[in-house]
Amino acid sequence: MTMDNHRRRNTAAQPSDSEPQSPESTISRKISFRIVPMLFLAALLSYVDRTNIGVAKLEMQADLALSEAAFGLGAGIFFIAYVLFEVPSNIALHRVGARVWIARIMVTWGLVTALMSLVDNVWMFYGMRFLLGAAEAGLLPGVVYYLTRWVPSANRGRILGLFFLAIPVASAIGAPLTSTLMSFHPWGLHGWQFMFIAEGLPCLLLAAVILKFLPNEPSDARWLDASEAQWITDTIHRENSDIAGDKAGHSSWTDGLKNGRVLALSAVYFSMVVPIYLMGFFLPSIIKEMTGGTVGTTGIGYIAAVPYIFTGIAMVAISRSSDRTQERMWHFAVPTLIGACGWVVAAATVSSSPFVAAVAICIGTVGAMATIPTFWTTAPKVVSGAAAASGIALISSIGNIGGFVSPYMFGIIRDAFPGEAGNSLSFLVGAIVLGIGGLLMIALSKTLPTTTPKSTKTAQLQHD
């Protein structure tokens, strides 16, 4: 009888033989259902609201008399503010707590997105894009840092994969959604004006949900047993000790800014961001030129979704395989280098064979984007504690300089080489940058921890 009672009290740690479970799988499943959906929706809305300008450009450019370079500059100004405010934002999240800070981020960027509907000249366009970047700064690195306090490294690839799946999903549904909303003209508004209002206001509703239901720490989660919350805390602490040694628990936020490997990872992330935003901001225009202007705005939006459908499938598969094998570097480098080769093919065929180019564009997009979760499982291996908040934000900040460079550079390229020549050169430059990132990660991996800390494998739920 005593043994029966003991087994009932310890089902999380002592599952039946017919249905074996571990603390990792039980807790991971709870996090997947209780936390990840809110963060997924936040990332989805974030990516839609920062890239909807690419579809809006199809009509907004003529209304505001924007050149390709002016549009590229305005699209990229978002990232100047984003870079400037990401590290302060993550430090604030570390001090204030994720629940309040993520909700604050969502309220401000939702309002700014809706106010984009008031833009009526190029300088207002520049100013509102800057404000949007400042408002949204810190969301993605903040969530990555938040999840490092909840998910042991052995399971982090899959959880981050679920979170970052929001980016290809947002790209897949964002273009059709944005183009569809632009077909409405209520209250005498232009289609792009109505679209900004319709896509900005839902952020306020999700912010209220996050403010009510997102727990800051495992000990705050009512859906975790006390023993499960303690297991998470102990396991993360052991992993941080493996990274920081004697400095575990005593790291300063300035330590994350002085770490050479953080700077190297920033360069790798930069190499991913540049081609990602080539697609995010210019794919609708490229499709319009590839189809000879025979497809309308709504149709272009649906065609632009296709590469991201394949990317989402690949992202889930790569992140799960990386967790299963506990191998990170080749799961990043191989898809990245294949993607770079895909865009070389796209550059060579975009004017001569649209079907081949379309397949190659899909391969390149998978290589640039599907490896994001694998990359972000690597970054927390070099910093811990408060240094993780600043280090992760610095990687995202420097990497997202590519978000400014990309649209401005490709806008200049497309102004200098109109039509098919500009498309070919854009894909070739994107391929070169992406390939350099894959090779840099191979070199950098020799300096990074390659094994999962023993504590993640051996730690078990402690019971009275």
Automatic annotation (TrEMBL):
Family annotation (CDD domains): MFS_ExuT_GudP_like
Residues in Major facilitator superfamily (MFS) profile domain copies: 35-449
Q: Where is the composition biased (Low complexity)?
A: 14-25
What PROSITE patterns does the record tag this protein with?
A: MFS (PS50850)
Q: Which organism is it from?
A: Rhodococcus indonesiensis
Query: Region (Disordered) spans which residues?
Result: 1-26
Q: Which interval of the chain is the signal sequence?
A: none
Spans traversing the lipid bilayer: 31-49, 69-88, 100-119, 125-147, 159-182, 194-214, 262-287, 299-318, 330-349, 355-376, 383-405, 425-444
Cite the InterPro entries for this sequence: MFS (IPR011701), MFS_dom (IPR020846), MFS_trans_sf (IPR036259)
Coiled coil segments of this chain: none
Places the protein is found: Cell membrane
Return the Basic residues bias intervals.
1-10
Whether Membrane counts among this entry's keywords is yes
Question: What protein name applies here?
Answer: MFS transporter
Q: How does it sit in the membrane?
A: Multi-pass membrane protein
Where does the UniProt entry say this protein principally localizes?
A: membrane
Q: Which UniProt keywords apply?
A: Membrane, Transmembrane, Transmembrane helix, Transport
